[in-house]
Amino acid sequence: MSIEAVLAEINDFLACETPNSWVERALQEQEILLIDHANCEKKAATTAMNLLYKHIEREDLLKKMSQLAREELLHFEQVVNIMKERDIQYRHVSSSRYASGLRDAVRKGGTEELIDVLIVGAFIEARSCERFAKLAPFLDAKLEKFYRSLLRSEGRHYQDYLGLAAQYSSEPIDDRVQMFRELERELIEAPDDEFRFHSGVPSAA
To answer: What φ, ψ does residue 146 adopt, rounded to 5°?
Structure first.
């Protein structure tokens, strides 16, 4: 599938586009953008590893999450190298409300929890892909090339998560996907006091 087709599919999957005001803020705060991007890649690898440890009986999941974890750690290393080139010190920044807001809606226990965790993973990867594409045209040549290079893998990660959720569910996942779609839209469109890679509409200063 071409990158254009992947992006079209992702835009159909998400309930809203990234607001232009977030893009404008991101361009003003590229240091925080890169630091939090590095954090997001590290957390994505951690999520994949946690699934590997918890679900050792699911062969398809092991294969896909192993590949995903390696790719996310490579992306983390690439972001850290870009930060070093730009004299940006990697430091602690607080997490955004985005991922925790999605995970708060995850059902607890058994297969239902796994299905929801996978659906949440699909939305996080889809939104990341959408934001890379939205930002890329406004960045310097090196960062634009890097962000465009991430589109294909992030798009595949979204498909892997969603495919596994459907595979392991004994019933259609459409209702759960729709519930998380609306929650994700609310998190993206609501005012947000902190700027982060997945933050919502920037609050007025």
So the answer is: -65, -50
Query: What tokens appear for 112 in the block?
Result: 């239902």
Half-sphere exposure of 184 (CA within 13 A, CB side): 25
Distance, in Å, from the CA atom of 15 to the CA atom of 178, rounded to the nearest integer, reads 9
CB 99 within 8 A of CB 43: yes
Q: What is the pLDDT of residues 42-72, one digit of tens each?
A: 999 999 999 999 999 999 999 999 999 999 9
Annotate 105-135 with b (16+ C-beta within 10 A) or e (fewer).
ebeeeeeeebbbbbbbbbbbbbbbbbbbbbb
- pTM above threshold 0.85: yes
User: How sure is the predictor about 204, in pLDDT bands with cuts at 50, 70 and 90?
Assistant: low
Domains in the chain, ordered, with CATH?
29-122+163-191 (1.20.1260.10)
What's the CA gap between 98 and 189, in Å, rounded? 11
Contact status, residue 181 vs residue 85, Cβ threshold 8 Å:
no
DSSP strands (E only) in 83-203 = 191-192, 201-202
Residues contacting 130, CB < 8 A, separation 6+: 7, 10, 11, 14, 17, 18
Distance CA 94, CA 145 (A): 27
